[in-house]
Fold:
Amino acid sequence: MKDNYPAILGGDKIRNKNFKPRKTINKDEINSVVEVLKSDVLSAFIGAPGDKFLGGKNVIEFEEKWKQKYNHKHAISVNSWTSGLQICVGSIGIQPGDEVICSPYSMSASATTVLFYGGIPVFADIDPVSFNISPISIREKITKRTKAILVVHIFGGCADMDSIMNIANEFNLKVIEDAAQAPGIKYKGKPVGSIGDIGGFSLNFHKHIHCGEGGMIVTNDKNLAFRAQLIRNHGENYSKKLRHNELSNIIGGNYRLTELQAAIGILQLDKLDELIKHRNKLANYLHEEINKISCLRTTPHSEDIGHSYYVFPIKYDEKKTGLSRNLFVKSVNAEFLDAEGWESVPLTEGYVEPLYLNPIYQHKIAIGKDGYPFNFNKNIIYNYDKGLCPVTENMYYKEMILSPIVREPLEIVDMNDLIAAIKKVISNKEIIAEKLMINNSDEIYTPVDAASSKEVR
Ligand SMILES: *Cc1c(COP(=O)(O)O)cnc(C)c1O
Structure:
């Protein structure tokens, strides 16, 4: 029988073995990559009009498979989802001075990609239950310069797309969906990613499925798909041939996926549904157990709206325990061995700092030295001050706890260890507070962040 004395104070840990790491690449992917290597064609793209403008055999097969599986009319693979977002911003025609409404509670690229085209990210606050951009806040941020809304489906849960699409229709705005964390799910029967005008997914190592680095753009709009293909692959070489005036402003990049990555992606895609199903099984269990604990709350998702559980979000109420969130998270994690990799950290806190607090917005300078594009609209002063989005700040500084262990190959028994560790800490809250809160009372805020603790996300 282990004693109940908290590990953070020197007691026994709840668990003395590591969580099994994720392992998604196996023999099939290895064989497939070897085939590509033997063929000697590691990429078939040519950046000029012709039959290789859209890439080689694996790239085309991967795109076909993705669009058919999830019922999008078009799929365009790219070398990262950051590239993908940049292409989406370009393909909807964002120009210098255009405002794009963004969520501040996301990975930085969900807003910085707007800046590449001289667009200006305007941050709307999030909803305190879904953690996604709030339609009420979006309305408050619309001006005559607003051209688009960049929606993120954060942690794998869907934003309120019905309300957002209504606003977009009312004000004639484009909608980009950043579904990096939410692949393979449906919102009221519609595949996430192409509910708005254009959107897509990340295939980086940490996402549900991956091919090293990569991304997939999806859209049901033929023109946007073509523009995306042009931007992906030196579109400037194409415009002479097309003599489309409206396309002559396309500056292309090289955002092409290799045949090696596409070959991996084709096989990874077969695994996505099972991975999401497994994560949902673990998440359903956590919802049930965690909502029995008075200081913690979760947001179960409704039947007709999917969730892919990139990570599992939990709200913490420090008033109910008398422990700061930081001390609570550290105490729970102390019940486990040091994690190997961020997907094995039992609890992390805060997620990312509200994006507007990033120096690029604080100093309002993105390109050149004069404040471009923030100074493009004369007499308009953009606000990125602390306090701008109180709900987001509250999540970051006070309430949000994330668990990245809601993932394969972990099982319910592993979730039980997490629950046991949480309950143990709560049953010892007085003694932990007594011994550690005094020293913690004026501690500098250092969130337990999986990204910065061991590996970089
Ligand atoms: C991962 C991620 C990105 C960036 O994707 P990459 O493929 O790493 O470039 C963008 N947005 C969100 C919400 C993400 O989680």
Notes: The radius of gyration is 23 Å.
